[in-house]
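Input.
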Amino acid sequence: MLASCIPLTLSSKEVYRSGNTRRISASLLGKCIRILQLLEAAVRPEDLNVTGYRFHRLHGKPPRWSVRVTANYRITSGWSGDEALDVDLVDCH
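Output.
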């Protein structure tokens, strides 16, 4: 499934810190911001395991994790120490 996914390069700094949302549809924005806030507060990937977000580890190296935004969109991230890295909004259609 991941092979058919297209990364949209969601920058947590662009959306969460600066409020620049020009690349994200208004229908996705609220949930994306909630997930980014959760990512910022998390100290380990399992902290994202919230009901309704369908959190799971993706196959492959290096390890990445996924959280569901909508049926087609996921926020994926890597992890190093106590912070999320390489956060992307991915369109899996």
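The CA atoms of residues 14 and 42 lie 19 Å apart.
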